[in-house]
Structure formats: C-alpha cells, structure tokens
Design goal:
heterodimer; A: mainly beta; Porin; 16-stranded antiparallel beta barrel; 5 helices; B: mainly alpha; Cytochrome Bc1 Complex, Chain D, domain 2; two-stranded antiparallel ribbon; 10 helices
Chain lengths: 459, 304
C-alpha cells in the first residue's frame, strides 16, 4: 500500500522533523566576560544577534581593538559557556494511531505535559591569536549522548582585509537569520521549517541549510559590515563525519547582503542565499554475510538539488521583521525516495539498478516565514513567527498537490531579569502550532501544538 | 482540569506583570534625567531621549547607568571607562580644557578607542550614534553652561623630507617627549612609571614602538591633532602654544619613524641612519622651542 506507506513515512518525518531541530544556540557569556560588554551589546535579545554582534562574529569573535589576542586575558580566563533550559511543557498531537481492544487501530489525540529539560550545549569560541579564531560546540541530548555540533578554525582579516576570512571544519551556514541564535525553543516552534524541509518520501537530507555542515567557507565584509558576501564549499554529508555517503559529492552555499540606514527607524538589511549541490542516490551493498549490507562511502549516482531565497531584516523602531523565503527543488531521484536511507533497509530503492516510478519528476516547493520582534527594552522581547511551505510539484504523479504542506505559527516572549557581562538568564514562554497537510495516519491533516514555560540560562 | 485557554490566560497575565515592572523602572529613571539635550552632526540631530535604551544596551555596562564610569565592568577594565559627568574627553578637535564638538564625540563612538575596551560602534546607524552623543552630553550640566571650543585648524600636510624628520627629532628631545615615551618611543621614559591621570589612577604613555594606531585615530592629521589639543585628563599636554604648525608636522613625521609599520618616514630615517636621541646631549636653544608647560588642569601629577 503505497499511500499508507507514504503516510507512515510522512508521520515519521513529521515527528523526526520536530525532534531534529538542534538549538545549540550561540550566546556566549565567555565573550562578554572577555570584553566586559553586556550580553545586550551583541544580542538584540540573546541568543539573537544584533548588527554589532554580527560584526563581532564576522571579525572572527574580535572587537578589532588590539586586545583580541588571548595574551591580553587573565590566564585564568576560560572561553567556555554552558547553556541549558529546564522547563515545563505541554505537547499535543491530534491524530495518533493506537491499538484498540478489538484489534483494529484507532485514531485519537495524545496530550502530555510535565517538567523537563533540554540538552546541554557546551560552547567554546574565541581567538587563538589575533586574527585566528576557533569554535567548538560539543552538545548532548537530554540523556547525555554527545555529538560535535560545530568545530572549526578561522583565519581572519588575511592581508589585513576584512574581505578575506576563511573557515574550515563543521560550522553553521552563513544564514542571515540564524536558527542557531533563534529565540524560539518549543517542540513545535523551535526551528525554521524551511531550513530543514524535505518533501514527504524524498530522500534528500543533504539540503538542510539549518544543519551545521562540514566544509570550508570564505566570508568577506565591508569594514562596517554593511556589505557581506560568503561562499562555502561543503561535503554533501549533512554535517556527518567520516564521509558516510558519497565520497565525491559536494554542495555550495552562497549568501550576499547589504544593510542601509533608514534614519530613525534603524538599519535594514536585504540579501539572498542559495544552496546548490549534488548528493548520492544509491549505494553499493555487500551480501557476503547473507544479508545485504550497505557499504559506507559507496554512494553513487549523484543527483542535484537547490535551495534559494530572499532574506530581509526590516526595522521600525522597536518593531522588526525578519523575512526569509525559499524555493526548493530536488532531483526526481531524490523525490522518489533515493538518497538517504529513509527505508532503513539495504534492499529497498537505494541500491543501483532500480528504476524510477513512471512519471517521476523533480519535486519543487516554495516557503516563507516572517518573524516579528517587539523589543520593549533590552530585557523584554515579544516575538511571533508565521511560516508556510507549499509544494508546487509533487515527485510522484497523482499525489495530492498539498500533501506535505506545512503551516507553523509560534509566539511568545522572553524576559531577562538582569543584564550584565557574566551570564544570561531568561524566563521563556512560548506557544507553537504546527499543521502538516495529509500527514495524519488516515491521510488527513495532522496538527500538533506546544506550550512551553522555562528558564533559559547560560554562563 | 486546566484547559489550554486557562494556561494561556495565565501566561498573558504573567507577561503583563513583567512588562509593567519593566516600564516602571524606565519611567523612574527618566524622571531623574534631563533628556532634552540634543547633538548636531552634519544634517543629523540627535536626541538624548531616543538613546536611553541603546545606552543601557551598549554603554552602561562600562560607563554606568549614571554615566559616572562606574558600570559593573569598570573594576575589571584598564584603562577605566570615561566618566561622562566630568565632561572631559581625550579625543577632541578643540583646545585643551574645552568641551569637544558633537562631531568629536560622534567620531569617537564610531571609531572606538584603541588599546582600550571601547570598540568601534559603527555597526550602529548614524542616527543611533548621534542620539548616543546627545545622551552622553546629558550627564553633565557643563554642556549647558559652556560651549565647545573652536576646532584647532590643521594646515595641509607638507611633503616629508629628511630635514623635517631631523627637525622633528630635535623637537622630540626639546619638548621632552622622551621623558614619558622613551628615547625610542617604547613608553619607557624615566617618568613613565610615575604617570597618573587626573583621578590619580596609573596611566601608561603611548608606545610608538609597538603600536600602529592612536587612541584618537590613525592618520597623520590625527597625530597632529593629538599633541596640539592634548589628551585632557591625562598627562599628555597640549603643545598648541609651544609649537608652530609647521613644526608640529615635523614632529608627526619623526614620530612615524618610531612606529613598526612601513612608511615613507621610516624609509627616510633608515637612509639617514637616524639614531635614537641622546637625552643628555645639549640642543641649541635656537633649534627648538622650550619644553611645553604642564596642562592647565590637575597638573600635580603631570610630567614637568
């Protein structure tokens, strides 16, 4: 039953989608301690950067005031920050399948609430020497399983030019609206959907611009950071180590933006981004043990994909809007399920020699979100985000046109009881609502919502 | 049983409570301050009242909520943050002892202060910076009673040559710059360890040998301006009454030879085989003016 299988796949994707957002946000009191600046100097409301913080980051975590080298620090200075978020939250999903006494599966809403805590982020970044900087972020899930969220070193201001900055390792893509520094935290509102969107049944996990990627980046910017350009060359591994997929597949990520003054309203910025790449669609197998086993790094049949969009940051005094759009396209091979092993088995459609379903075509979609902030003062910020993704072409003919569409709405506030240069603390309250079209087990729409109240702190 | 709606209402009430607390603090603060001060830079007009939040956000951690230089970070900083209530500023285009122009303060905010914790705030918009200048001014009543001085004129920079560099070196000795800055500009002169600012805090002279940028700029004209205006509040006096403009340029050229970066002045000095001055050697009175007088204010700790 193809439709049932696709619905199940959709449900799994939907759940995985919610769980996949990694909010290893980069708000580092270690920087504040080093330079004696309040968190609010770099963060409009931490962890979201303001223009000064963006420039600090673009300069390689340097203020460019001749005191950036660690030799200026007290030897006991340790550039490490811990962040965690204990909370109470309530999660509700309207249609889940469950076993009934009669043996037939039923559908019902499932709601749960309770006290909880998120994963731990250990954030370390700074300078090794003037114009040589680094970033290391080991992060664990709630059970203590660690992974390397980011690790990279950077050469800054090569030949004393702000246009020559090079970074290598695993890093956050140069998204102007950073999910890693986003304000939203709840299960149904914590991430930006278009940064991770994969059509239902699509096997391309490699185009997720919200995931940290492994590669090398060139970043150039004007002295005052008003104009920024960057290009990153990435291995198509979705940030995973050891080249587990194709050994010769690469992607590229491009961004460009320019900021301009709008008088008393502030400084606006407009720009673009694009990710283009190739990734494998099939894998060699070895059945010498009697069971087909996929061979690591044996990816074959590279196929293309692209994501591109517009980014705008618009300020109206205390009110600002962040707008991000996206047009996405995957090869029909991805659309038919090739690529990553979404079936989890080696004998499925990920081995060489299989053929595309009749009429398969490139899946395409369009998406956008608008995030709004009202900064009452540096200690109180209200936010909302509305996000929509619409499939414009399904990979498999006959699939409902709106299958896999997403609506997401989230709103809340963060209150920071104090401001200093040693630690950050926020009372966080957020509500998120997410709807996936046709993703319920019975093929109808699936909705879920989250309510979250918590302490978000780092030090 | 609590419904989601009940919970949402409770959350909304919590938001309102927090918002009212926060706004009450702002109002109380505003009542204590005179926020009608303006600043004018070019066609921009800054309003102190518009900078209150940005001052809290960017400046108060070091300069303090009251502008007294006693923010929570001040104890860890060296040099200490400026005390705006004194209305005394190092980086000016105006004569020593006078108030700076609004443009002077605006430039300092945008440029930052080298070798201090004051960064460049040029990512802020022009309007935000001029608003902050107005806010800085509102901390002192001196801005109501005094007017900024007239900017010291800076004549066009002459062409550098060997004679000018040698003349500048003579000035360096006669003006006794070496007593603080050292004979090679290494900030190790005999007075260097005794220097204090006007609040009796130890202060170091500029190290020409290691540093390329000055506190108040990087250009030759900035260096010219620094010793013609002095750095108020520090032992660095104004030489405006002791040095003619042409001589001041000679001194600029000589000081450039002490710095680490490549320059035409350094090239000429190498061709000349210029040696560091000998403080014990006599300099003919006709060759240079007398040593500069001590600054007008708080001169008990200044080098004589």
């Amino acid at each position: 039953m193809v439709s049932a299988r696709r619905s199940l796949t959709g449900l799994l994707l939907f759940v995985g989608f919610l769980l996949s957002f990694s909010n290893s946000a980069n708000a580092l009191p270690a920087f504040a301690r080093k330079y004696g600046l309040r968190c609010s100097a770099c963060h409009e409301a931490w962890p979201m950067l303001n223009y000064f913080g963006q420039k600090f980051k673009d300069n390689g975590y340097q203020l460019m005031n001749d005191r950036d080298s660690p030799v200026w620090q007290n030897p006991s200075y340790w550039p490490v920050t811990f962040r965690m978020t204990p909370s109470w939250h309530r999660e509700s999903t309207d249609k889940i399948t469950y076993d009934t006494p009669g043996g037939t599966p039923g559908l019902r809403r499932l709601t749960s609430s309770g006290f909880d805590y998120g994963g731990l982020d250990i954030l370390s970044a700074g300078t090794l020497e003037k114009n040589i900087s680094f970033q290391i972020i080991p992060a664990s899930d709630e059970l203590g399983a660690f992974h390397i969220e980011a690790v990279n070193a950077r050469l800054d201001n090569v030949f004393n030019s702000p246009w020559l900055n090079f970074k290598m390792g695993k890093f956050e893509l140069d998204n102007l609206v950073s999910e890693k520094r986003g304000l939203t935290l709840s299960a149904n509102g914590g991430g930006y959907n278009i940064y991770h969107f994969v059509p239902v049944g699509d096997g391309n996990i490699f185009g997720q611009i919200g995931d940290n990627q492994v590669g090398m980046e060139w970043l150039g910017h004007s002295a005052n950071d008003r104009t920024r350009l960057s290009v990153a060359i990435l291995s198509s591994t979705d940030g995973n180590p050891d080249l587990p997929y194709g050994s010769n597949s690469y992607s590229a990520f491009f961004t460009g933006s320019h900021a301009f003054n709008v008088g008393k309203l502030g400084t606006d910025r407009v720009g673009f981004y694009a990710m283009v790449g190739q990734a494998p669609t099939t894998y060699l197998t070895d059945s010498s043990s009697g069971v087909p086993v996929l061979l690591p790094s044996s990816g074959l049949g590279n196929k293309g994909f692209s994501r591109e969009g517009f980014v705008g940051l618009f300020y109206f005094g205390k009110l600002d809007f962040q707008v991000v759009t996206q047009h996405g396209s995957d090869s029909k091979w991805f659309g038919a399920g090739y690529g990553d092993l979404i079936d989890g088995i080696a004998t499925g459609n990920n081995t060489p020699g299989t053929v595309l379903p009749a009429g398969a075509r490139n899946p395409t979609w369009n998406g956008a979100f608008v995030e709004t902030h009202w900064v009452q003062n540096p200690q109180l910020i209200f936010f909302q985000r509305s996000e929509w993704i619409r499939m414009s072409q399904q990979a498999i003919p006959g699939t409902a046109g709106n299958f896999g569409n997403i609506d997401n709405y989230v709103f809340g506030y963060r209150y920071y009881p104090f401001m200093n240069s040693r630690a950050g603390f926020a009372w966080h309250n957020e509500y998120g609502w997410l709807k996936g079209y046709g993703l319920a087990p019975d093929g109808s729409d699936l909705t879920s919502n989250s309510l979250m109240l918590g302490f978000d702190f780092d030090f | 049983m609590r419904t989601p709606q009940t919970i949402l209402i409770a959350c909304a009430m919590a938001v309102l409570a927090l918002a009212s607390t926060s706004s009450a603090q702002i109002t109380e603060y505003q009542e204590q301050q005179n926020l009608g001060v303006e600043a004018h830079v070019g066609r921009l007009t800054g309003h102190a009242k518009d900078a209150e939040i940005n001052y809290r956000r960017y400046c108060a951690g070091c300069h303090g909520n009251q502008g007294d230089g006693e923010g929570e970070n001040a104890m860890w900083l060296d040099p200490k943050p400026r005390n705006f209530t004194l209305a005394q500023f190092k980086c000016r285009s105006t004569p020593t002892g006078s108030l700076p122009t609004d443009a002077d303060l605006y430039d300092t905010v945008g440029r930052g202060v080298q070798s201090s914790n004051m960064p460049s705030w040029n990512p802020l918009s022009d309007q935000q910076r001029v608003d902050l200048v107005a806010y800085v001014k509102h901390f002192s009543d001196r801005w109501k009673t005094d007017k900024p001085g007239e900017a010291i004129p800076i004549p066009p920079e002459p062409a550098v040559n060997a004679e000018r560099i040698k003349s500048g070196q003579v000035l360096f000795q006669k003006l006794e710059c070496w007593k603080c800055h050292g004979v090679e500009g290494r900030a190790n002169g005999p007075s260097a360890d005794t220097l204090t600012d006007d609040q009796n805090r130890p202060i170091k002279p500029f190290n020409f040998h290691d540093q390329t940028k000055f506190k108040c700029g990087t250009a030759d004209s900035d260096l010219y301006r620094i010793f013609m205006t002095g750095l108020d509040g520090t032992p660095m006096p104004s030489f405006a009454d002791n040095v003619k403009p042409d001589e001041a340029w000679d001194l600029v050229f000589y000081l450039r030879t002490l710095q680490p970066q490549h320059s035409k002045e350094k090239e000429i000095a190498e061709q000349l085989g210029l040696k560091p001055i000998n403080p014990n050697a006599a300099v003919a009175p006709a060759e240079a003016p007398a040593p500069a007088p001590a600054p007008a204010q708080n001169n008990e700790n200044k080098p004589q």
